[in-house]
Design goal:
Elements (H helix, E strand, L loop, with lengths): L8 H25 L3 H5 L3 E6 L5 E4 L4 H18 L8 E4 L11 E9 L6 E10 L28 E5 L2 E2 L1 H10 L13 H29 L1 H30 L3 E7 L5 E9 L4 E5 L15 H15 L14 E4 L15 H18 L12 E9 L5 E10 L28 H7 L2 E8 L15 E7 L3 E6 L20 E6 L19 E4 L3 E6 L4 E5 L29 H10 L2
Helix pairs in contact: 1-5, 1-6, 3-7, 5-6, 7-8
């Protein structure tokens, strides 16, 4: 296809925003038509547009870990189906080896056909985290999983809509019947909710199809695809300039960093910058072997973390897209925890190891101190199989909990915020207590948990639950044995801690009322990764890590600084909701 020699700067900005607005409209549709707490309230979903070759074109600011890896999923399905796609088809996938992140993140992909030539001109895609897709524990995020079969339904490719016909029977086979065949595992515990949310994703994708076809009708296919190309070139050029500036500032073309997971597994990175070309090789040689647990991270997630870091270090307003990766060569050692085998457990790699990858990249580029390095994944629920192996209906709840962000040269870290690759909200306490058998006793900042420095790290949070019925409760977390580091003399932040507060019970199992808040309570540190059956009246106290400090602490420990803010205006569904709440 012929390309314009130089883009019109006004049209370049216009199309960048038009593409982003399509993704935002998809997100609004998904939020409004979904029913689960996870998608409707917590906003744990992403929507994006892709070129005919599967490259990411534009997205709204949803979940960074979704957006960087969804291109892998689109390209995998393109190779698998090639000429098999037709109007009215929607593909469904969640396999980490088909461009997925972890199994609860289900991706739906819809081809966009030109209304005249009937050729594929775009793809729209949405990825949502579904609270339960089967596996050995409610919530499908088992802290102790050792293979992928224990984590729920794995779907490499399924045509959930075929020529406009929704395949409900096929969905139930993939989501309910197949995962239940693995010993100790259940199928999806709440298939009605999952089915409803998947239909909301289908509708969101269709919204994007309609808007893209309207854009093509307005401007013509040639112009739209020309500017799609120019937007990617603009991102590529911005990253090349960033790499040149970093090499010049560091006085070296070689950067390196290493950090460790709580189990001691190293994540090692060496960056070699070609200053002339504005290119770089990011080599993770030296990273630890695949682990027996679930902290293995699919290759697509590694690329998500890298593309996020590049975009985050750019102080210009451009959509995150495939152009950000063009100047980069990412090398991942075979048999490492960043390139796991087909059956390796991965549910923690997407939400925990990815955070550590981001910390390592930003440490190598000397951008900021470590953030909390965790998403503090809490799941609880009921259901599965009875003693005879018969499926029992149930439900699962999932949430991630904020912490502190790291400080940098000229700004304090932010307290009580989701950091880096996650961008979700916490569940509203009113909705949480109305829908689930829990009471929330405390939710607030964890004082002095951020690292001290010339610029202080942000504080983590405290979140304390009481369970009003016996429930299976799981926590999957990091930074419980290794503190988020400071930089340039800044102090490390406090590590996180998970405590089971257990009261004395009568022989019938009920809690003794007079031991509540008394010396007869037991405080049990359950570690970073645990599954516990908590009885009625038991409490779980989660204290999340802070962010590291930057610079040597001085006598003036309250050094004033403006909070670090990007030069662009916040936008997207989260920003819109925050603006609506602020207007009341």
């Amino acid at each position: 296809m012929a390309r314009k020699s130089a883009p019109d700067p006004i049209l370049l900005t216009l199309f960048a925003n038009r593409f982003m607005s399509v993704a935002e409209a998809m997100g609004r549709s998904l939020q409004q038509t979904s029913i689960s707490t996870n998608i409707k309230e917590r906003l744990d979903f992403s929507c994006a547009l892709f070129a005919p070759d599967g490259d990411l074109v534009a997205n709204a600011p949803f979940i960074p870990i979704h957006l960087g890896s969804m291109s892998f999923a689109v390209k995998y399905q393109m190779r698998l189906h090639e000429k098999d796609l037709k109007e009215g088809d929607v593909l469904m996938t969640n396999s980490p080896h088909a461009g997925g992140s972890h199994l609860p993140d289900i991706t739906l992909i819809t081809p966009v056909f030109d209304t005249e030539t009937r050729e594929i001109i775009f793809f729209t895609a949405s990825r949502g985290h579904h609270a339960d897709i089967g596996g050995i524990l409610p919530g499908s995020m088992p802290p102790t999983s050792v293979n992928i079969f224990e984590e729920g339904a794995e779907i490499i490719s399924f045509k959930i809509v075929n020529a406009g016909v929704f395949d409900r029977e096929g969905l139930h086979e993939y989501m309910v019947e197949r995962p239940a065949q693995y010993p100790g595992s259940s199928g999806c515990r709440n298939i009605k909710e999952v089915e409803s949310d998947l239909k909301a994703q289908i509708a969101a994708n269709h919204k994007g199809v309609q808007l893209l076809q309207a854009m093509v009708k307005e401007y013509g296919l040639q112009t739209v695809q020309d500017y799609m190309y120019h937007i990617r070139m603009n991102a590529e050029s911005s990253v090349r300039n960033l790499l040149r500036e970093v090499a010049k500032r560091a006085g070296s073309n070689v950067l390196s960093a290493v950090d460790y997971l709580d189990d001691g597994s190293p994540l090692q990175l060496k960056v070699e910058i070609d200053e002339k070309e504005g290119a770089a090789v990011l080599d993770f040689e030296g990273t630890g072997y695949e682990v027996r647990g679930n902290l293995n991270s699919p290759i697509s997630v590694v690329h998500s973390a890298v593309i996020y870091c590049m975009r985050a270090m750019l102080d210009v307003d451009i959509p995150l897209n495939a152009g950000c990766l063009v100047p980069l060569t990412v090398r991942i050692p075979e048999r490492s925890l960043l390139s796991p085998s087909q059956t390796a457990a991965v549910c923690g790699g997407n939400v925990l190891t990815s955070q550590r990858i981001v910390d390592v990249v930003l440490k190598a580029f000397h951008a900021c101190a470590a953030s909390q390095g965790c998403t503090n994944n809490l799941t609880f629920g009921t259901g599965g199989k009875d003693k005879d192996g018969v499926a029992v209906a149930g439900w699962g709840y999932y949430e991630t909990i904020a912490g502190g962000s790291g400080a940098g040269p000229g700004w304090h870290g932010t307290s009580g915020v989701h950091t880096h690759i996650t961008n979700t909200r916490i569940g509203d306490v009113e909705i949480l207590e109305r829908r689930y058998p829990v009471l929330l006793h405390r939710f607030g900042l964890r004082p002095d948990s951020g690292g001290k420095g010339k610029w202080h790290g942000g504080d983590g949070v405290i979140r304390e639950f009481e369970f009003t019925h016996g429930l299976q409760v799981s926590i999957l977390s990091e930074r419980r044995t290794r503190a988020p580091y400071g930089m340039e003399g800044g102090e490390p932040a406090m590590m996180g801690r998970n405590t089971w507060i257990k009261g004395r019970r009568r022989e019938d199992g009920d809690l003794v009322d007079d031991c509540v808040e008394s010396e007869e309570q037991r405080f049990i540190n359950i570690g970073g990764k645990a599954t516990v059956f908590m009885g009625k009246g038991d409490r779980l106290l989660i204290e999340t890590p802070g962010g590291g400090g930057w610079g040597l602490p001085t006598d003036n420990t309250l050094q004033e600084a403006q909070p670090h803010k990007p030069t662009w205006e916040a936008r997207g569904s989260i920003a819109e909701r925050a603006g609506a709440q602020a207007s009341f």
